Predict the structure of Putative NAGC-like transcriptional regulator.
Amino acid sequence: MVKTGISLDSVKNNNKSQILKILQKNGAMSRKDIANQIGLTPAAVTMLCNDMMEAHMILEKGEMKEQKRAGRKKVLVDINYDFKYIVSVNIEAVDTSITVTNIRGNVLVETKVHTRTDIEPQLFLEELAKEIKLQLWEKELKLSDILGIGICVPGIVDRNNGISIHAYGIWNNQVKIREILEKQIQCPVILENNVKAFAEAEMLYGVGKYGNNIVFIKWGPGVGSAIVVDNKLYEGNQHNAAEIGHYIIEPDGLKCRCGRQGCLETRVSMFALCDRIKEIYSKENTPVLYEETAGDKNLITRELLTSWVENEGNGYITRMDKTISEILVGAIERMARVAVNVLTILAPDCTIVFGSMFENTSIYKLFIQYCTKYDENYTDKLISRSHLSDKMAYIGGTALIASTYFFESKNL
């Protein structure tokens, strides 16, 4: 017998993966329509679908509503999004979100814990593992119900080995997150940079399903970015790529948490904005804020700034002090200038912006105005807000596991 190097099982799994991806992109379809899309016979697709139905990965959704036609009606099939569940963990400088979702990203469990930087990373991760197991126990979920755990952290990540190399603002040293958590919870763990994970979510659940070359920009609390080329996340040398937050805008500027000087983050991150507001804070310079904080500078925190941004409807942006407004407008201009420079080099099909700062409509519109000022082509048609922003705390981790352990052929 001649060895071809490709097994029958491998071919079948590849075809099943294609079917799942088509259903994820288009929704419920008939077996015949699926066959037309992937170039297989209806009989072959029926056999593959029967295998996946037996494994509870897909299910029938009833007959397709069509105009009157002779012959048997088409029966729709769709993904069984409750086939397994996914634990998503988003580690940020202040809080860590733990969320349990189904494969579609519908939430079953959602909680937060304080990100403890006052103890060794391993101890914090062991505490995190206990909290995850508690949440699963309270929902009466067994480990066999869990497809995997997706972990998102800021900074540089070695995804292949599950290591956080430098989680800016959290840990300065390497942390073997996957090894620690898989030891505590006997379950597959995938670790990724938070912005890259969100980009993966956009490709699976959002606008990325229809685009090939995309740039993602996050603003709030820090600044991050990711690049998708030919529907694949780009990763550069030493797991580092598209670090727009560490684009140097002032050669002799402030020291950044990455170790360099004058990075964009030192001027536009929420922490940087709070520091700049504190510098000018006084009864004369910032009367509105001074009254709101009762003269206590210590109340100027990222949480306060976030409340301004999130409560735009209550007039926080429009009634803030002129001096603070000038700081904010300057930050928006800097973000737009750097974004235009990056987009000019990469020339993507589209750009997706997300994060708490961009969620504020006034900030987003002013950002677009500055982008258009520098290049008239960069309008809101080319730079749009993500429709997944309300799921930012968990959708990245969900996508990491769903993509790898459900939709990819090698893991079927």
Q: What stands out?
A: DSSP finds 14 helices and 15 strands in the chain.
